[in-house]
Description:
Elements: H1 3-24, H2 28-48, H3 52-78
Helix pairs in contact: 1-2, 2-3
Amino acid sequence: MDSLTIVTIIIGVIMTLSAIMAVYHSDTATAIIAAGMVSLMASLLYVFLAAPDVAMTEAAIGSGLSTIIFFYALSKVRGGKKDDH
Protein backbone atom coordinates (compact mmCIF):
# COMPACT_ATOMS: atom_id res chain seq x y z
CA MET A 1 0.00 0.00 0.00
CA ASP A 2 1.24 3.45 -0.78
CA SER A 3 1.14 6.40 1.59
CA LEU A 4 -1.83 8.08 -0.14
CA THR A 5 -3.98 5.01 0.45
CA ILE A 6 -2.99 4.87 4.11
CA VAL A 7 -3.75 8.57 4.62
CA THR A 8 -7.10 8.17 2.84
CA ILE A 9 -8.04 5.25 5.09
CA ILE A 10 -7.06 7.23 8.21
CA ILE A 11 -9.15 10.21 7.07
CA GLY A 12 -12.08 7.88 6.37
CA VAL A 13 -11.84 6.36 9.84
CA ILE A 14 -11.68 9.83 11.46
CA MET A 15 -14.70 10.93 9.41
CA THR A 16 -16.66 7.86 10.44
CA LEU A 17 -15.85 8.26 14.14
CA SER A 18 -16.69 11.98 14.01
CA ALA A 19 -20.01 11.25 12.31
CA ILE A 20 -20.89 8.67 14.95
CA MET A 21 -19.94 11.16 17.66
CA ALA A 22 -22.08 13.86 16.02
CA VAL A 23 -25.12 11.60 15.97
CA TYR A 24 -24.85 9.96 19.37
CA HIS A 25 -23.27 12.59 21.66
CA SER A 26 -25.63 14.09 24.23
CA ASP A 27 -23.92 17.51 24.36
CA THR A 28 -25.09 19.60 21.42
CA ALA A 29 -21.95 21.74 21.21
CA THR A 30 -19.78 18.64 20.97
CA ALA A 31 -22.05 17.24 18.27
CA ILE A 32 -21.72 20.48 16.28
CA ILE A 33 -17.93 20.37 16.53
CA ALA A 34 -17.92 16.71 15.47
CA ALA A 35 -20.06 17.55 12.43
CA GLY A 36 -17.63 20.32 11.54
CA MET A 37 -14.81 17.82 11.87
CA VAL A 38 -16.50 15.58 9.31
CA SER A 39 -16.57 18.47 6.84
CA LEU A 40 -12.96 19.35 7.59
CA MET A 41 -11.83 15.78 6.97
CA ALA A 42 -13.86 15.73 3.75
CA SER A 43 -12.03 18.84 2.57
CA LEU A 44 -8.69 17.13 3.30
CA LEU A 45 -9.86 14.13 1.33
CA TYR A 46 -10.75 16.37 -1.62
CA VAL A 47 -7.23 17.84 -1.55
CA PHE A 48 -5.73 14.35 -1.73
CA LEU A 49 -8.07 13.51 -4.61
CA ALA A 50 -6.77 16.56 -6.57
CA ALA A 51 -9.90 18.68 -6.27
CA PRO A 52 -8.64 21.83 -4.53
CA ASP A 53 -11.59 23.99 -5.60
CA VAL A 54 -14.05 21.57 -4.00
CA ALA A 55 -11.81 21.33 -0.93
CA MET A 56 -11.77 25.10 -0.44
CA THR A 57 -15.55 25.29 -0.81
CA GLU A 58 -16.09 22.44 1.65
CA ALA A 59 -13.70 23.98 4.18
CA ALA A 60 -15.26 27.43 3.92
CA ILE A 61 -18.93 26.50 3.76
CA GLY A 62 -19.19 23.00 5.22
CA SER A 63 -16.72 23.29 8.04
CA GLY A 64 -16.56 27.02 8.72
CA LEU A 65 -19.84 28.75 7.99
CA SER A 66 -22.16 25.87 8.85
CA THR A 67 -20.51 25.38 12.24
CA ILE A 68 -20.81 29.10 13.01
CA ILE A 69 -24.48 29.12 11.99
CA PHE A 70 -25.19 26.05 14.15
CA PHE A 71 -23.55 27.67 17.18
CA TYR A 72 -25.49 30.91 16.55
CA ALA A 73 -28.76 28.97 16.35
CA LEU A 74 -27.83 27.04 19.49
CA SER A 75 -27.24 30.29 21.38
CA LYS A 76 -30.63 31.60 20.26
CA VAL A 77 -32.42 28.40 21.25
CA ARG A 78 -30.76 28.31 24.67
CA GLY A 79 -31.70 31.93 25.30
CA GLY A 80 -28.31 33.60 24.83
CA LYS A 81 -27.88 37.17 26.07
CA LYS A 82 -31.04 39.23 26.29
CA ASP A 83 -31.36 42.94 25.61
CA ASP A 84 -32.46 45.29 28.38
CA HIS A 85 -35.04 47.02 26.15
